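Aim 2 progress update. The chain analyzed this quarter is reproduced below.
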Amino acid sequence: MPTFPFVKKIVGFQNLPKSGPFIIAPNHTSHFDWIVLLIYLTRYLKRHVHFFSTIKYAGNPLFKYLVDTSQGIWMDPKEPVRSFYVGMEYLKHGEIVVIFPEGTRSPDGRIQQGKTGTAALALTTKVPVVPVGLLGTDKVLPKGAALPRLARCQANIGKSMRFDAFYQEYDGAIDQNDQDRIREIEEKVIRMIMKEIARLSGQEYPF
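Predicted structure tokens:
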């Protein structure tokens, strides 16, 4: 596969499912994260990879072009349910979505607490989650930088995670509208996902 000047290596391509829908869940320290993933994942998978991206970047012509051409999912904080259902529909139709579980870039490079939205999407659709640990992307494109720096990053792609032990209980909690139980299951699952992302990025998950 052709190399990208700012990328040292990508490890674990063999862990990506060969077909069917799945969620890719990376840590997030730089805008360069999703540029790297978009370039390498689409080349390897030869499929559309639909990124969740916050609507506040829609005013940036480059971001808007990249998100729109990759058929990305704009997230509006005022309408979070809408983006959730768009992602769910993509997965139901056999597509791949990328969501950063931390919700926003880390201010200091250290892994942040994961949001339960990624767990809810995985539990609702029952598709596997592929954790990804990104290292050094914040050195390539630090916060506030307009152009990449002379640095190199790495991505470690982990093995697919499924949560079969939780699906039936989660569906039951949804049917009964048991919000406390729903939240408890989602928190367990996001912690499992985040611990693996942390391991792949050479960190510990302290939450």
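Strands lie at 7-11, 22-26, 49-54, 73-75, 96-98, 129-135, 153-157. The two ends are 37 Å apart (CA to CA). These observations will guide the mutagenesis experiments scheduled for the next reporting period.
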